[in-house]
Amino acid sequence: MRQGQPRAERRQERSAPEGQPRQEPNNGAGRAIQRQGHLGQWMESHKNLSLPDQQRALQNEPGFRELPPQLQQRELNQLARLYSMNPQERARQLDQIEALERLSPAQRQQYAAAAQQWSALPQPRRNMVRGAMRDLREMPPAQREQVIGSPAFAEQFPEPGDRAMIRTLLSAEPYPPTAAP
Q1: 40 and 118, same structural domain?
Q2: Which of 12, 14, 100, 149 has the lowest CB atom count within 10 Å?
Q3: Are 132 and 157 in contact (CB under 8 A)?
Q4: Final residue of a structural domain among 46, 77, 102
């Protein structure tokens, strides 16, 4: 994590199941946490601790106690969720957090709006978008763009707003390593 940039602001709400976009909190109250390094590094340096010990370490981070109680609890819950994941799930989650960190504040706002748009979709439509995103996230950027711009994709998602929403939600997805041909 970048020093001075709040973890709560850099990450999305993590309550959504895998494959669903998660909304990023829109509350700047998390600005007080000033952890050194990135979340992945913090998790690595605390990996030998039990969950209660990790939670205590988090509570001792500079600025944590200045957060509103609701955000403190959200941070502790997020830590517990990461702790309970298998290493592959945790790595994917941490990669996505890193991808969100790289977004500019304006891009984060766009992302939050797209996540809200997605959550307002009827369930069958949300499932369709989730499936498309699952397929697209496995592609390199150029191929993703080619698929999203294709007539077949436009037929499946005729609303330009839907395609823009998918592009925006995928903007915080880490790209898989490119395989050698």
Answers
A1: no
A2: 149
A3: yes
A4: 102
Structural domain that includes position 56: 7-102
Distances (CA, A) of 143 to 21, 135, 148, 154: 21, 11, 9, 15
The model's confidence at residue 137, banded by pLDDT at 50, 70 and 90, is confident
171 token code pair? 């903007």
Residue matched to tokens 């007539």: 151
Model's pTM, two decimal places?
A: 0.61
Domain match, 162 and 88 both: no
User: Is the per-residue pLDDT at 7 higher than 70?
Assistant: no
Helix (H, G, I), strand (E, B) or coil at 21: coil
Q: What tens digit of pLDDT does each residue of 53-101 get?
A: 999 998 998 888 898 999 889 889 988 999 999 988 888 888 888 888 7
